[in-house]
Specification:
Blueprint: H1 3-12, E1 17-23, H2 35-39, E2 43-49, H3 56-68, E3 73-75, H4 84-104, E4 112-118, H5 124-132, E5 150-153, E6 158-162, H6 177-182, H7 193-207, H8 209-216, H9 220-224, H10 228-236, H11 247-260
Parallel strand pairs: 1-2, 1-4, 2-3, 4-6
Antiparallel strand pairs: 5-6
Helix pairs in contact: 7-8, 7-11, 10-11
The protein binds guanosine-5'-triphosphate (GTP) and magnesium ion.
The site of guanosine-5'-triphosphate (GTP) has 24 residues, from helix 5.
Length: 271
C-alpha cells in the first residue's frame, strides 16, 4: 500500500462515504486495485469523471459491470456538474441509513461526511466543488494541485474531505503507466512524452485514423506511415534548427489534444 494511502487511512474512521474517483477513459487502470480491503464495509461509491471525454457506450457498459459487481457507480462531468445529481441521489440513500443508525443508538443526527480518494489529477477537487456548489477547493490541469487533506464545510448536511492524489504502486507496471500518462494522471516529467504520444497515435490509428487526418491536415498515408509524429510536426512547422522535426513539441501537442478531447471521445479500455 502506498504511503500516501496509509496516511489517509486515519481519516477513514471519520467519514461515512468514500467517493472513489476514477477516470471514465480508463475505468479499471485508474482505480485502486484493493481499495475494498482498506475500506472494509464503509460505503463506497465509484465516480467516473471526464465522462464527457469518454465513449458514452463504453461508459454505460462499465457502469453496468461495476454495479453488477456490487459497487455503486456513476459517471459525471466534474467540471460542469453533469451527472452529479445521480451521485447525490446515491448519497442520499446512505445518508438516510446513517441517520437511522444514529437514531437507533439515541444519537443526534450530524452532517454526512464524504471523502474523495483517487489518483492525481482525476477530478477529485472539481467533483467536491460541484457537490459543495462552489469553488471551495483549488483545481488545475496537472497532477499535484491538492497538497494535503482539506475539509470543505458547506451549508446544509454534508462535510467534504478533499485529499491529494495518490498513485497506487501498480501504476508503474508496463502497460499502465503510459495509459495513465495519456489521460494526464501520471506524475509529470517521468514518462517520455514521445512514448505517450506514440501510444495515443497507435490507439487512434486503430480506432479512428480519420481524426488524425482532419485535425492535423496530414494524408491518410502519412497517418498510417512509420512516423506519425514526424508527419504532424512537419505539417505544423514544429521544427528545430536544421529543419528536423521537434518530436517533443509535436508529441505534447498530440497528447494535449487527446487529453482535452479535441480528437474525439474515447475509452481506452473496455470491460
Ligand atoms: N473535461 C473534464 N475535465 C475535468 C473533469 N473533472 C476534472 N476536470 C479537469 O481536470 C483537471 C484536474 O481536476 P482537479 O479537480 O484539480 O483534479 P484532482 O483529482 O483534485 O487533482 P489533484 O489534487 O492534483 O490530485 C482540471 O483541469 C479540471 O477542470 C471532467 O469531468 N471533465
Ligand atoms: Mg485536487
Amino acid at each position: 500500500m502506498p504511503a500516501g494511502i496509509k496516511s489517509l487511512r486515519q481519516y477513514l474512521k471519520f467519514v461515512d462515504i468514500v467517493l472513489e474517483v476514477a477516470d471514465a477513459r480508463l475505468p479499471a487502470a485508474s482505480r485502486y486495485p484493493d481499495l475494498g480491503t482498506i475500506l472494509g464495509n464503509r460505503t463506497r461509491i465509484l465516480v467516473l469523471t471526464r465522462a464527457d471525454l469518454a465513449d458514452p457506450v463504453a461508459t454505460a457498459r462499465w457502469l453496468e459491470v461495476f454495479q453488477a459487481g456490487g459497487t455503486p457507480a456513476v459517471a459525471v462531468n466534474a467540471r460542469t456538474g453533469e451527472g452529479v445529481r445521480a451521485l447525490r441521489q446515491q448519497m442520499a440513500g446512505t445518508a438516510k441509513e446513517k441517520r437511522g443508525k444514529l437514531a437507533q443508538k439515541g444519537l443526534r443526527a450530524r452532517p454526512l461526511r464524504v471523502m474523495a480518494l483517487g489518483i492525481p489529477n482525476v477530478g477529485k477537487s472539481s467533483l467536491l466543488n460541484r457537490l459543495a456548489g462552489r469553488g471551495a477547493a483549488r483545481t488545475g490541469d496537472r497532477p499535484g494541485i491538492t497538497r494535503g487533506p482539506q475539509w470543505i464545510r458547506i451549508e446544509g448536511n454534508m462535510e467534504l474531505l478533499d485529499t491529494p492524489g495518490v498513485l497506487w504502486s501498480h501504476w508503474q507496471e508496463p502497460g499502465t503507466a503510459l495509459w495513465l500518462g495519456a489521460i494526464g494522471c501520471a506524475p509529470e516529467g517521468i514518462l517520455p512524452v514521445t512514448e505517450i504520444a506514440n501510444l495515443v497515435g497507435e490507439f487512434l490509428l486503430g480506432k479512428a485514423p480519420e481524426v488524425l487526418v482532419t485535425r492535423y491536415g496530414i494524408t491518410r498515408q502519412e497517418a498510417e506511415g512509420a512516423n506519425l509524429l514526424e508527419a504532424i510536426g512537419r505539417r505544423r512547422g514544429y521544427l528545430l534548427p536544421g529543419g528536423i522535426v521537434d518530436q517533443e513539441k509535436t508529441a505534447l501537442a498530440l497528447v494535449n489534444d487527446f487529453r482535452a478531447g479535441y480528437l474525439g471521445r474515447f475509452t481506452l479500455e473496455l470491460p
